[in-house]
Amino acid sequence: MFNEWLWLGFAIVNFTMILLIYKIFGKAGLFVWIGMSTVVANIQVLKTIEMFGITATLGNIIYGTAFLATDILNEKYGKKDAKKAVWLGFFTLIAMTIMMQVALQFQPAESDTVHGALKTLFDLVPQVALGSLAAYIISQYFDVWIFSRLKNKFPDDKFLWLRNNGSTMISQLLDSLVFCSIAFFGMPWGVWAEIFISTYFIKFIVSFLDTPFFYIAKKIKPQ
Fold first, then answer.
1. CB-based burial of residue 112 (10 Å sphere; 0-12 exposed, 13-18 middle, 19+ buried)?
2. Is the sign of the CA dihedral 190, 65, 120, 95 positive or negative?
3. Domains of the chain, earliest start first
4. Do residues 37 and 69 lie in contact, with contact meaning Cβ atoms separated by under 8 Å?
5. Contact 204, 171 (CB under 8 A)
6. Cα–Cα dist 127/166, whole Å
7. Secondary structure of residue 221 in the 3-state scheme
């Protein structure tokens, strides 16, 4: 149970930090967080762990915080700012990919000890990179759209949980579907289905856990 408890604590730390950056820096802090989280998530996702009886990737928590950040922006500042944040995250992801590909082309010095590790982390697998980019922009845009629809239909604050959970859980399902369909195209159906289900299961839990933090963010008055 070590990984499960550590994972839960890690989730609480991530969600607390997003509230902290919002409290201190306001809307700008959420923009920065989204750019940072997309980069870190694409690094963490390379590590797999055993948890809840399944093999899962590690980046799902911080990737989920990007959805929480756009929901906060959508709730408190409107759809325009939420969309702006989505494109900021998308540009950040593309910029990191390009810059690291160029960095890997430099011939390392004889005394270098990290080139191999960097190559392992950032060596581009086109199919996976395309899947990641497509999943991010499609699911995040859908999240902004469905959140706005739910907010218009259920504007009362007693439906905050519906706007947050409904938009994020459905968007994360779409994210998993798009990513797995592109990144793991050609895999045997049974293997593909197992990856898809396990990936969404973890994202679903993350979406559920962020609910109280969304309520706290609603009450925060940034400095």
1. exposed
2. positive
3. 2-219 (1.10.1760)
4. yes
5. no
6. 29
7. coil
Using CA atoms, how far apart are residues 167 and 148, in angstroms rounded to an integer? Answer: 9
pLDDT (tens, 9 = 90+) of the chain, 223 residues, equals 899 999 999 999 999 999 999 999 999 999 999 999 999 998 888 888 888 888 888 888 999 999 999 999 999 999 999 999 999 999 999 999 999 999 999 999 999 999 999 998 888 777 888 888 999 999 999 999 999 999 999 999 999 999 999 999 999 999 999 999 998 888 899 888 888 888 899 999 999 999 999 999 999 998 7
Three-class secondary structure of residue 51 per DSSP: strand
What are the two backbone dihedrals, phi and then psi, of residue 106, each rounded to the nearest 5 degrees? -70, 135
| Nearest C-alpha neighbor of 63 from the set 150, 167, 135 | 135
Question: CA end-to-end span of the chain, whole Å?
Answer: 39
Residues whose CB falls within 8 Å of the CB of residue 164, separated by 6 or more in sequence, listed in order: 68, 71, 147, 210, 211, 214
